[in-house]
């Protein structure tokens, strides 16, 4: 397969830490250029990958040798740059969430299809093989009939200027962290999910939600309780609770490539831990994108569309709460600035 020549739009942390190293190691991808608003940043990143440095994203789209772009910009900027990239005839791998609105996501997917271009959202965890093993256990009746689903994704607080705390840039816990438990619920409970209720919590003085939870149910009556947050000790797990047992998966959503997955199966007969060989979900996701570009077989966008609709619905239905813990915001702010 001729490698897909890809251009990188912005020197984002996720690009530098995860996606660029995975792309560099894959034969199906060649990093052709890295663009940044800051030419020095672009030059430094490009040096590390032996590719061209470009100032500005528009200039990246003007390059003929770039046939696809990776968009790891702040959430609110995804839509406009995906749109520009598609208009310029480039395939697009977009960071999650694809956009901050379900209708915009739908419009861009339609535009990509009409132009025979691949547009894929980089939700990586479904590309990890551990979830197929869990699905197999469920289908084999290991825990009986599924009665309930719980999923959580939360990360510790970041510096105050992180894009996740900017409402203007599409930040907030629901947009950033909520995607994972929502997508996990979809993959085990099916596509017919309804949002029953939700709560989004804002820290006093902050413009975005820092935490949330949502209650969903499937058409078959199975409930899903989802929790997410940006000011939490690290948690990345889900649990399937059935009539005859329980399956628990820790490190479910962002396991590193060397992580040894352990699937915990609890039944009346005892507890079994199924150890799997490590898998690299970042490489798998990027590889799926490259294969789609080269084969012309477009990735199924149904999951992206449904996820966008559910995220929007959770946001629309959520009761908003303000956490007034006295002095909390000030304390955190002072610590981070010192
Ligand atoms: N799939 C995953 O596992 C995963 C993990 C983490 C993050 N993400 C997603 O990746 C995206 C980026 O997240 P991140 O944490 O990597 O963000 P980040 O480090 O803040 O990077 C965002 C990049 O966007 C560019 N940018 C353009 N306009 C900007 C503006 N007004 N303010 C700030 N940056 C601007 C900057 O690049 P230049 O200055 O170089 O132009 C910046 O480096 C988000 O959509 C996030 O949801 C996905």
UniProtKB/TrEMBL annotation:
Domain named Gfo/Idh/MocA-like oxidoreductase N-terminal: residues: 5-121
UniProt keywords, alphabetically: Oxidoreductase
The keyword Oxidoreductase appears for this protein: yes
Domain (GFO/IDH/MocA-like oxidoreductase): residue spans on this chain: 134-247
InterPro entries: Gfo/Idh/MocA-like_OxRdtase_N, Gfo/Idh/MocA_domain, GFO_IDH_MocA-like_dom, NAD(P)-bd_dom_sf
Signal peptide: none
GO molecular function: nucleotide binding; oxidoreductase activity
Family affiliation: Belongs to the Gfo/Idh/MocA family.
Protein name in UniProt: Predicted dehydrogenase
Species: Micromonospora nigra
């Amino acid at each position: 397969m001729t490698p897909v020549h890809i251009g990188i739009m912005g020197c984002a942390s996720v690009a530098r830490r995860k996606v660029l190293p995975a792309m560099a190691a894959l034969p199906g991808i060649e990093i052709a250029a890295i663009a940044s608003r800051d030419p020095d940043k672009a030059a430094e990143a490009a040096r590390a990958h032996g590719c061209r440095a470009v100032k500005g994203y528009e200039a990246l789209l003007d390059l003929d040798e770039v046939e696809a772009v990776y968009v790891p910009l702040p959430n609110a900027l995804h839509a406009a740059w995906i749109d520009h990239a598609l208009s310029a005839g480039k395939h697009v791998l977009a960071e999650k969430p694809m956009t901050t609105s379900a209708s915009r996501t739908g419009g861009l997917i339609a535009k990509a299809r009409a132009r025979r271009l691949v547009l894929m959202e980089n939700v990586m965890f479904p590309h990890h093989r551990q979830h197929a093993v869990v699905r197999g256990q469920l289908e084999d009746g290991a825990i009986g009939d599924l009665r309930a689903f719980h999923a959580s994704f939360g990360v510790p607080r970041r510096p105050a200027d992180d894009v996740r705390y900017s409402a203007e840039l599409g930040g907030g816990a629901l947009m950033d962290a909520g995607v994972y438990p929502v997508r996990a619920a979809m993959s085990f409970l099916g596509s017919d999910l309804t949002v029953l209720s939700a709560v989004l919590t804002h820290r006093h003085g902050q413009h975005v939600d820092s935490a949330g939870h949502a209650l969903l149910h499937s058409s078959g009556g199975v409930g899903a309780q989802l929790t997410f947050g940006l000011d939490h000790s690290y948690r990345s797990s889900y649990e399937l609770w059935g009539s005859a047992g329980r399956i628990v998966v820790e490190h479910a959503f962002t396991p590193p490539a060397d992580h040894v997955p352990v699937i915990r199966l609890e039944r009346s007969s005892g507890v079994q831990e199924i150890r799997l060989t490590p898998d690299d979900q970042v490489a798998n996701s990027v590889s799926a994108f490259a294969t789609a570009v080269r084969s012309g077989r477009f990735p199924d966008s149904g999951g992206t569309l449904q996820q966008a609709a559910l995220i929007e619905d959770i946001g629309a239905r959520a009761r908003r709460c303000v956490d007034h813990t006295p002095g909390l915001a000030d304390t955190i702010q002072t610590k981070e600035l010192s």
